[in-house]
Design brief:
The protein is α/β, with parallel strands linked by helices and 491 residues long. It contains 17 helices and 20 strands. Bound molecules: flavin-adenine dinucleotide (FAD).
Amino acid sequence: MAGVVVVGAGMGGLAAAARLAALGHRVTVVEQGDTHGGKLGTLHRDGYTFDTGPSLLTMPQVYRDLFAATGAPLDTVVDVVPVDPVCHYRFADGTEVGLPHAEEDVPAALAAAFGERSAAQWRRVMADAAHLWGLVGESVLQRPLGGLGDLVRRSANPRDLAAIAPWRTLRALGRARFDDPRLRVLLDRYATYSGSDPRRIPAVLSVVPYVEQHFGGWYVRGGLRVLGDALADRCRELGVRLRFNAPVVGIDATSAGVSGVRLGDGERIAADVVVSDVDAEVLYRDLLPARSARRPRRALRRAVPSLSGFVLLLALRGRTPGPRHHHRVLFPADYDAEFDAIFGRAPRPVPDPAVYICSPDDPAVAPEGDEAWFVLVNAPRQGPVDWRAPGLADDYADRVLRVLADRGLDVRDRVRWREVRTPADWERDTGSVGGSIYGTSSNGPRAALLRPRNRGPVPGLFLVGGSAHPGGGLPLVAMSAAIVAGLIGPA
Ligand SMILES: Cc1cc2nc3c(=O)[nH]c(=O)nc-3n(C[C@H](O)[C@H](O)[C@H](O)COP(=O)(O)OP(=O)(O)OC[C@H]3O[C@@H](n4cnc5c(N)ncnc54)[C@H](O)[C@@H]3O)c2cc1C
């Protein structure tokens, strides 16, 4: 047996490698960069440690399953701790609310901020979302996707399909069910968790806030990157060979199946099975022979890419006055303007964006008495906007700091140093087209069906990671790995 080659050491690729090695396969991971983790990156400098990508872990049970299936349990290798409140929100009118870690405490927090009536409305929408989760959680997310007919068959009865209502948007749901415009903004925010526009994604995505509230929001002590380190260690313990600085430039395949991968330096690695953690658009455009990739490329052309992100890493002197919030979102007055700037005809950096701040209260990530802030705003992809244009990234970082100051958080005179990560950086460093964070977006009723499947178009080729089913985000990419390991089976 030539074995399995996994292309890409992102969390999807590593999770697949660990599972396949535990199933007895001989696994090699080839990664173009010089480290593992992909978007789950890290920056250490002058006593500060930043997660440069993900900062909120939801559904940690997915990683508990992964670690349990491949060796020692997760909690023996990393310290996963609850974040409470999961996130603190500030609206344009100055209203503030923290959504507690415990699901049962959420209505009281909303009632205190918006009144009993709004809290009851939110509770009812979440109860419906719980029902939707029952319909899609296991049957859609944890299994390979087989197309619309398959989805319909899996929905137990027509009432369930009516509840899923793929034609209804999240925005329409918010309008219909919430009187308070601030609750609508809160619901809209969850569209961005799949890199999408609330005006275009199906209302079934209301499962996202449900999942966050039901399973809670979590942090990994030392930073989320520690989870990536633990997974890379797990792979090594299982005998997986990790090769860095090894870009794959082609996958050898005929209609009979895959036979290997070619590296940039001309080396060829034979494989019976290739698992791609590469952005599916790149896989089908650049790596696979054109004749094999025709059909999936057609589907991808009809899908809308997900948004990207502009990240500002701030090494701050001293402590911010007031209560400490691990995650914070400061909303703008006109949230729609953000989605117009990103998904509209003339994409541009969002002038007045919602700003997300992650500032862990963890002595491991900042010198004593100081703070490490990860600041993220949604951004259009590299391509439609040239983020490499001289001065753009720096000017935009200044703007984000001004926006923060206007919303009551002026940290400009506390910045020891700062670094930025633009969509162009995500594209260069992780190979995602335009720096998309989540592959294709969920925009449109058919988005989930246009998402590339886990089984590729030639025998022996499989897809994991955020650009394949079931989608992006740390839990979903690990789910894609479980699906793929199930499709491949034991050695
Ligand atoms: C700013 C930001 C914030 C985020 N916040 C969160 C969050 O709070 N919570 C959450 O759950 N998720 C979050 N995400 C999303 C999450 O990071 C991703 O969905 C997930 O990490 C993607 O993992 P992956 O395995 O699909 O791909 P990636 O992490 O993109 O890994 C792909 C790997 O493949 C390698 N590669 C690409 N092409 C080749 C090639 N030709 N040859 C060899 N190697 C190749 C790349 O170098 C990379 O290492 C965030 C992402 C970003 C960018």
